[in-house]
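sorry for the late reply, my laptop died twice this morning and i had to redo everyting from scratch. anyway the thing you sent over, i finally got around to it. pasting the sequence first so we're on the same page, its 282 residues, then the predicted structure underneath. double check i copied it right bc i was rushing
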Amino acid sequence: MAVAAPEIPRKLPTITHPRPPRRRRWTRWVLPSYTALVMLYLVSPILVMILYSFNNSGFKRVSFKWLGFTTQWYPKVFDKPDLTTALKNSLIVATISTVIATACGTLIALALVRYRFRGRSATDFVLFMNISAPEIVLGASLLSLFISFGIPRDMKTIVIAHVMFNIAYVTVTVRARLAGFERSLEEAAQDLGAGPWTTFWKVTFPVIFPGILAGALLAFALSIDDFVITNFNAGAVQTFPLWVYGAVKVGIPPQVFVMGTMIFAGGALIAIVNIVVQRRKA
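ok and here's the structure:
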């Protein structure tokens, strides 16, 4: 006698109700829109400068009248000897002050992070006071110092002034990089027989180099466009910002926009190269 197979219960089909379309809230666009507006506000002066470096105006005064596109000002960028000399002075001052401030600021940052010594808190206070103090105060105080010691104002006084305010920025930047530095790397190198000098150049310096480079670029940018402190301590020396300020009264030539564009392009190129190199190392 055959036994009937048990019936397999059938699953009832599940009824799925379609979800209502998710409404996108308009508030999700507030922060991106605000960020875009702020970025546009920050970049717009640079864009105007780049735009008017191609303006076929030949104007003698600052004007927003567009008279056509041209590249004739770029081959003629060094046709004004006094403007070229002013730019050369700015580059010389920025380079020398950046090298000195980067070396001194890096050593100060190492001392503040690694050692405890009497006057450490006072050093921190002086550094942040240097950053927060108005430029007119720094410029006037340096002018009084140079006059009191009978130091004539020329290129060397500009370099001294720029080194003075750049050291604080370099120190803060390098110090932030040293905050997360693993001292065990140096200890391992010393255990393997490396001396202090070799340990610094082979281990410490490569690790903190991005911070040193960032501090140097910041110092160079602050130096090349400084006006207030330089105006107090320049004497008869003309730098690029001082020349532009004097030219505003009679009219800015197109070469100013070209030089500004070239300086901006050089800084942007260095920043991009640094980012690419860091990503490849990562």
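The chain has a mean pLDDT of 84.
thats about all i looked at so far, will dig more tmrw
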